[in-house]
Amino acid sequence: MASVTPRFLKLPESSHLSLRDQICETVSAAITSKSLAYDRPLPSCRELADQLGVSRNTVFAAYNRLVDLELLVSRDRSGYFVAPQVAALNKALIKEEGDRTDDTPCPVSFRPNNLMPVVNPLDWNAYPYPFIYNQIDPELFPVDGWRECTRQALGRRKMPVWASDSVESDSPQLVRQLRQRLLNTRGIYADDDEILITLGSQNALYILGTIFAQCGKPFALEDPGFFGARNAFRLAGSELIGVAVDDDGIIPSAIPSGCQLVFTTPSHQFPTMVTMSEKRREELLAAAVAKDFLIIEDDYEAEMNYVAKSSPSLRSMDKTGRVIYVGSLSKTVSPGIRLGFIVAHRDIIREARIARGVMMRHPPTIVQEIVALFFQLGHYDSHLRNIERRYNKRWHAMNKAITKHLGMLERTESEGGTSFWLTGPNGFDATELTRRLKAKGVLVDRGQDYYLGYNDSRSFRLGFAYVPVSKLEAGIEIIANEVRSLL
After folding, report:
1. How confident is the model at residue 166 (pLDDT cuts 50, 70, 90)?
2. Which residues contact residue 29 at a Cβ distance below 8 angstroms, ignoring those fewer than 6 apart?
3. What is the C-alpha end-to-end distance of the chain, expressed in Å?
């Protein structure tokens, strides 16, 4: 039977201490380094004696010494445990201490990778005003509906579906629900073999970057644009070319010849939030044929429109099979669920499925089944209507507050989404603004991170999905005060 207790493989080498004290030193070091669980017993005297090759009496003496030092407690018929006061102290230290410095040098060195990490602090939700993108208000999530779907998915009747190896296939139930309840709302009608489930849109982009990198042609991206796509394609080894955007989205005439792929976010351009017109979409599709490139359409926040109706997706307008559609459930269900999908020509999906299989076989089947039920039982439709209504109210409140307090900045025109893009005059330093605001409990996304060359620091982004209406204007006033001090 496998042991469930910690293993201490050896005592300190070349120690002048007695065996008892060497054991005390080894165990106390494990305690202070927080390597021992506080609710699990240490090895019994017999187990530890066998591990270290000493007598049980020696281990017994060492444990009793640690009890006297109040590092351990002995519980009748349960064994020895880390003392509660030590456990409490260690938990407090974990909260206070920074990253531990490891003195052991790494045996390899890495060249700078030029990737853009997410820079927001892990405790972002502890800030009073987290105006950052990609977060949702947990109060809006239908916990009861999700719990019911989870209960049904875990039932014995459905257990054979997710408990066995799915090889590289996806949940047929989820694929069906995506086709019937989500894709057709964007005018997309695809067969099962034209859909691939992924771990969110970021995973989808990395898979696509991997299978197309071997072609050796550069990828074109919006500039400013989604740094997640930039990271995925760069890590796959492709050359990247930035293409300017205007008030109508990416500019087709600025796309150079010889590109393999063009990445775009036409519904709400990431990060400026402008919506690509139908005429511009037609121009982009025509350019794809003329210049022989494929289009990756990330349909970012397509559902979130508060001023005008949703524009047709590029995929729905495509007659040549050149558009690869990428979608995600992060904004409409939850970022933590990590499910997305690719819709493309079946030959592209076949290659993408092979690449996904090499990376991770397939997304967890149990999660796919729960999400399929979430769609099937109507929870998704109800939840989408709820967040659209709530975000509509927040968007208008945010728009009003920005107009009132931040009129000194340039703002791109937007028809919806969950954020706003603002730009200061020449010489304005939005990076310094983000630093000052963070000290005042306000988080914003600095604009220079979205540029391919990190060469423009005048802009910043304000996301409002997590901030309640009652706090929006107060947060904007703090931002406005700091902006005025920098102008």
Report:
1. low
2. none
3. 69
Q: Which of 423, 392, 404 is nearest to 308 (CA)?
A: 392
pLDDT bin (cut points 50, 70, 90) of residue 101 is low
Other CB atoms within 10 A of residue 473 CB: 16
Q: What are phi and psi of 383, to 5 degrees?
A: -65, -40
Strands (E), 135-218: 195-198
| Four-residue CA torsion sign, 156, 161, 167, 168 | negative
Run of H or E including 294:
strand 294-298
Is 82 in a helix, a strand, or coil?
strand
Q: What is the DSSP letter of 305?
A: B
pTM of the entire structure? Answer: 0.81
The DSSP-derived string for 154-197 is TSTTTHHHHHS--TT---HHHHHHHHHHTGGGGT----GGGEEE
Q: Between 156 and 11, whose confidence is greater?
A: 11
Gyration radius from the chain CA atoms: 28
Show the tokens assigned to 209.
């970057």
168: amino acid identity, one letter? E
Q: Strand order in 323-328's β-sheet?
A: 195-198, 340-343, 323-328, 294-298, 261-264, 219-223, 240-246, 249-250
